Structure formats: structure tokens, C-alpha cells
Amino acid sequence: MSRFLLILFVACSGAPAKVEPPAPQPPVVVDAAADASPDAGISAALANAPAWVFRYATAQRTETWTLRTDAGQALLVVESATGTLRYTGTATETAGAIALDVTTGSAKLALQCKHAKRALSGKCNDAKAKKLDVLDCFHPDFKEPMPFGPAPGIEYAVDDHCNGYRLIP
């Protein structure tokens, strides 16, 4: 019996067994690009500001440009067959003009826009149409402006029925 007590004493008197904590789990990696809202980083007021639209439509290329401005901010979305570019930046308004300075992060764009009136209807180059408020936006590389109109907007079309400006149907 003393032998049993000695074995029991030796077995119980050792240092407590070291319990290893569970290995930490690797962090969950979230793909921010997949989860990000298309309008992440802009104000709700800018996202909901009235849209001004210009569409360029030819057999070779169709692009729709949608411009929104609010409180000095600008959002310009350009949609084409190759994808969508989202430019954000500033809109500085002075004396009836708006200077846009926007970027996608890798591409920059500057436009000078002026409030104007243009005779527009659903018919191409309709000189008898009612004059509507537009934003004539000038790109430094082009002589003619891109006229943006309240959504659904203005289209410059070159097709069998039109070679000029009309309201987007």
C-alpha cells in the first residue's frame, strides 16, 4: 500500500500539465472591391443630385456620360461597351460656369461647363424646337462642347436618321 501511495504522490505532485491555447484563426479577408458600393466615398446628396446626361452614339462607339454635382463635389460616370468609368472630384461654380476637376484614381479629366440654351427635340438638329437649359461642357482637346441635359439627356448621334443633336428618346 505504501508503494501505491508513493506512486500516487509522485504522479500527483508533478507540475500541472500545460494546456496550449487554441491556435488563432486566420483573419477573414474581405474583398473590398466586391463589397464596395458603386457610390462609396461620395455623399448621399451627390449620389441623389439631379443627373445631367450626354450620349455620344455612332456605329463605332457609344458612350453615355452622366454628371451630378452638389456642394462643390462632382460625380461623372462614363458608360461604354468596354465598361464603366467613375470619376469623382470637385465642381467649382463661378459666374454661370462650372469647372470640373475629376479623377478615376488613375485618369484625370478637366471640363469647363457653361450654362446655355439649345433648341432641342426628339428630331435631329431641330432648329424650331423649344430652347432648353443645358450645360455645354468643353474638353480641352475638342472644339465643340458636350451638351449635357437633364435626364434622360442629350444625344449626339450619327446614323441613318441623324447627324447631330437630339433629346435622348
Helix share of residues? Answer: 10-25%
Terminus-to-terminus distance: 103 Å
Strand content: over 45%
Using the CA coordinates, give the radius of gyration. Answer: 32 Å
> From the helix content, strand content and strand pairing, which structural class follows?
mainly beta
- Topology as a string of helices (H) and strands (E): HHHEEEEEEEEEE
Number of beta strands: 10
Q: Detail the poorly predicted runs.
A: 1-13, 15-39
Helix segment tally: 3
| Strand arrangement, major sheet | 1-2-3-4-5-6-7-8
- Sum up the overall morphology in one term: globular
Describe the structure.
With 169 residues, this protein is mainly beta. Helices cover 12% and strands 46% of the residues. It has 3 helices and 10 strands; from the N terminus they run H-H-H-E-E-E-E-E-E-E-E-E-E. It has helices at residues 2-13, 32-35, 44-47, and strands spanning 52-57, 62-70, 73-80, 83-94, 97-103, 108-119, 131-138, 146-150, 154-158, 163-167.
Topology:
Elements: H1 2-13, H2 32-35, H3 44-47, E1 52-57, E2 62-70, E3 73-80, E4 83-94, E5 97-103, E6 108-119, E7 131-138, E8 146-150, E9 154-158, E10 163-167
Parallel strand pairs: 1-9
Antiparallel strand pairs: 1-2, 1-8, 2-3, 3-4, 4-5, 5-6, 6-7, 7-8, 9-10
Overview features:
169 residues; 10 strands; disordered N terminus
Short description:
The protein is mainly beta.
